[in-house]
Amino acid sequence: MSQPPEGTAPGPDEIDRGLREIIAGVGGDAAVREPSAAERSRRPAQPVQAKRLGWRNARKARRLRRPVPEPGHRPRRGGTGRSPAAGRWQPAPQRRSRRSQRAWTITKRLTALVLFLGLLYGLHLLGFGPH
User: Which of 45, 91, 93, 99 has an alpha carbon within 20 to 30 A of 72's alpha carbon?
Assistant: First the structure.
């Protein structure tokens, strides 16, 4: 199908002619030809080459190789992994009640608010606030 000049749309006759070529198969060979399933099965399998992992992917792979902890237990943290107790599991600590979690959240937010207001007051004393 011939291409019209840049910026102009092809006319309806050009579109119809292009569609007729496609339907009739006159357009020529396809640019990309994929082999059929039978052709693919005749070819020998190609071995997968292991490529070198970056440090992030190597770290992820190392994490994924670790054993999954049992429910209610979690792995100990710290150590170099050379001590005999490095891979042992310890029971999870008792969870806080919902009330104490909420109190802790409110305390953290109030602390942040007080620190922010103190910063504003200090900046005002230094002359950086509204005049």
Answer: 99
CB 69 within 8 A of CB 89: yes
The number of distinct structural domains making up the chain is: 1
Which parts of 5-97 fold into alpha helices (H)? 12-24, 37-42, 55-65
Residue 17 within a domain: no
Kindly state whether residue 115 falls inside one of the protein's structural domains. yes
User: Six-digit token pair at 125?
Assistant: 């004393």
Q: What is the pLDDT of residue 45?
A: 82
Residue 124 lies in a domain: yes
Residue written as token pair 């198969």 = 25
Across the chain, which has 131 residues, the per-10-residue mean pLDDT values are 66 84 72 84 81 86 87 66 57 81 96 97 88 67
Q: Which of 86, 88, 63 is nearest to 74 (CA)?
A: 88
Range of the structural domain that residue 128 is part of: 98-131
Cβ atoms of 86 and 76 closer than 8 Å: yes
> Which amino acid type is present at position 21?
E
Q: Examine residue 111 and state whether it is found in any structural domain, yes or no.
A: yes
